[in-house]
Structure prediction request, 375 residues.
Amino acid sequence: MNVKNLRIFIISCVIITFIFIYFWGEIKGQKVICAELEVGIIRDTVSGNVKVLAGKTYNLKSRVQGIVAHVAMQPLGKNVFVDKNQSVVQFNITDLNRSLNQALMAKSHFSQRIEKGSSLALHLKIEQEDLESLTALLKADKISLVELDRKRNLVERLRTQLEHENISNDEALINHSINIENLRSQIDKMTIISPIKGQLIMSNAYPGDLIFPGHHLATIISSDRIIEASLNEEDFSGLSEGQPAGITLFALGNTIFEANVSRFSTTVNPSTGRRIVYLEIADKTIPLPPGASGRVEIIKSERKDRKLLPRKALIGNSVFVVKNGKVEIREVTVGAKNLEMVEILQGVDAGELVVIETPHLLRNGQSIRPILVEN
Prediction:
């Protein structure tokens, strides 16, 4: 036998072997994991992605220009717990304090000068006394009416000047007070305080930095947490406030945290078709890390005496039912469902054998060897 014939012989043997294996598999049947449709209890749940958010977040910004004198936490430093109204960033206020002291001193000296009295008021008093004397002399025909009128005009002019002086003094006092208030306001703005009792998680300033208005200085979050779950819009049917839920976070392993539905968003994201539901952790003392993500399963109801199958048995809205060593595809109506199980309303009867492992690898009418397991 030459080489060419030998190659043809080997290829023929391989083809015959594959054909034999194929038809033998068709005759004997592929091993398939199956289970009987059982009756039991199922929790109707809906699942979605979750994210942990701080109850309140404050981004503190500078309202003035200044040089940083002190910070509660430097950039990339360890988080710091702060009380309400505690100083987070302090600017240098040496020059402002000096200006404030000068303004206070100027107002004090001005007030003292007012208390000492006005020379104009003294002049007016003397001229008023002279006017009274001249009035008596006019009655005795000792002076002319012209002299008396001249004195009256002088007194009136001094009285007007005194009124103007009083108005100017009041205006000056108000300006001193406004200047002092402005300086104190600027000093207050040079101290950035925490609006809440919480945690300083980010700082963006070092001592000595020159900061301009609008500069983002720090971020503070509250201690309470909000759990935000994103669900498909169709999954909202049957949801209501107060329903129990179980939350797992990727950062915290397989720990399940008990929670309840607290409220729903009023809008649906038009680009994703998803809607937000907010949850509250039952144990509020658990230090959940903000920004952590995970999964949630919300329990809508619990149903008893229901026909159940593992969820992985479904191919769309169909399952493979085993009849006489072969599988037949059958459309079913699904009721309650969760991550593991589904309720079968129609299509399969209790006790029938259903394929529950890799049904997508089978075809209708295929011979199989069922391996029966319990759900």
Observations:
- The domain at 26-43+304-372 is CATH 2.40.420.20 (conserved putative lor/sdh protein from methanococcus maripaludis s2 fold).
- Residues 129 and 155 are 10 Å apart (CA to CA).
- Confidence is low (pLDDT under 50) at residues 19-27.
- The first helix runs from residue 3 to 28.
